[in-house]
Design brief:
Length: about 350
């Protein structure tokens, strides 16, 4: 018998965990390492708004019990940041300098919040909500009845906005091209959707361009300045302008990257030993004759499972899923993006 295959998976979110479980089902002997920057095991990030509903313990957000990793003999490497992938020698380098070899690598590193370039100098004045730790900090910065200014308002942000309004906070939404991302909204649909947000209690600032963010201290310490000289103040300012794939550690991997990792329909990159799944990848679409992102919890999970099956010998394609749908139902916005 030969040595067991070494599978490395970067990212322990929906795509990465689903892949690890699938590899274990198909290869009982495999050595599986699941790597994450997070100090927490796999939890449901879409549940983070629950922090405003009184949830304080990260265990209440876990997607799977922590024992699962031992049961499936998956080595979960928390608090481990990959800084480089060497696609020729098939190694991963961590920030703490360790180097780990692999036979097959799956990259499921997801994405971070995108911030329009015009505001990049003000990132330190923004509050984040992409991880449990960031959400805890943000919740503490918003007092009871406090005011949140939300830039963009993608579907991740809008879900949080509804929870904030339902829990007695004020939300000021500054719209831009990323409002309703990842949906692509036709101009004639936009008005009805914005009206539905207003009816829910969200204050809308539409058609004004933010140029600066200021820390002015006092009761409402954050101020957004617009190009026409007007301002809006709140306890925190958050940007929800879609996702930017996390690929910065892949520059030496020898794989093709545009915005995300470019993969074929079987989710294999231009390096035969490296696959990608989830928010980090752009998948070739035969129908569209181009590479596309497919966001949404269900798509991401399916991608992880398909990639894992292909890494273990299958030849399955990720077929174009149904496009995401959004509409106003009984006065409230409904989106298939929120279906888990
Ligand atoms: C508040 C909130 C609400 C959301 N609501 C919804 C929703 O309603 N519906 C929906 O479809 N989606 C929602 N999302 C988005 C959803 O969480 C993502 O689409 C999904 O998590 C993507 O899964 P993924 O497995 O591709 O990557 P992620 O879940 O983003 O996981 C990325 C993983 O990669 C790891 N990683 C990244 N870089 C490195 C590195 N250099 N070294 C080591 N590890 C690394 C991270 O630590 C993490 O474990 C929400 C997200 C947030 C934050």
């Amino acid at each position: 018998m030969g040595e067991p295959s070494r599978y490395a998976i970067i990212g322990s979110g929906s795509a990465g965990f689903g892949a690890a479980r699938t590899i274990r089902e198909r290869d009982p002997e495999a050595r599986i390492s699941l790597v994450t920057i997070s100090s927490l095991p796999f939890y449901n990030r879409y549940d983070l708004p629950k922090l405003f509903l009184g949830v304080e313990d990260w265990r209440d957000l876990l997607a799977v019990p922590t024992e699962v990793f031992d049961m499936l003999d998956i080595q979960l490497r928390r608090a481990s940041r990959v800084v480089e992938v060497d696609g020729r020698n098939l190694t991963i380098q961590f920030a703490h300098n360790e180097v780990m070899g692999f036979d097959r690598l799956l990259v499921c590193s997801g994405g971070g919040g995108y911030l329009p370039a015009a505001l990049s100098d003000y990132r330190h004045l923004l509050h984040d909500f992409g991880s449990f730790e960031q959400a805890v900090v943000t919740r503490k910065a918003v007092p009871k009845g406090g005011t949140v200014i939300m830039l963009g308002g993608d579907m991740i942000g809008l879900d949080l906005a509804f929870t904030l309004v339902d829990t007695g906070h004020k939300v000021i939404l500054v719209t831009n091209d990323h409002t309703f991302w990842p949906h692509q909204i036709a101009p004639e649909e936009r008005g009805e959707l914005l009206d539905a947000l207003t009816a829910t209690g969200i204050e809308i600032i539409d058609g004004r361009r933010p140029t600066a963010i200021e820390d002015i201290g006092g009761r409402l310490p954050r101020r957004m300045v617009f190009s026409d000289g007007t301002t809006a103040s709140g306890n925190v300012i958050m940007a929800f302008c879609g996702q930017q794939p996390s690929v910065e550690f892949l520059l030496s991997a020898g794989i093709d990257i545009e915005r995300g990792i470019l993969v074929n329909t079987q989710l294999q990159s231009s390096n035969d030993a490296i696959w990608a799944a989830g928010d980090v990848c752009q998948i070739w679409s035969d129908a569209g004759k181009g590479y596309k992102f497919y966001h949404g919890w269900k798509n991401v999970r399916i991608m992880g499972e398909i990639a894992a099956r292909n890494m273990t010998g299958a030849e399955e394609a990720f077929d174009d899923p149904d496009p995401l749908a959004i509409r106003v139902e009984d006065g409230r916005i409904w989106s298939s993006f929120w279906e888990h």
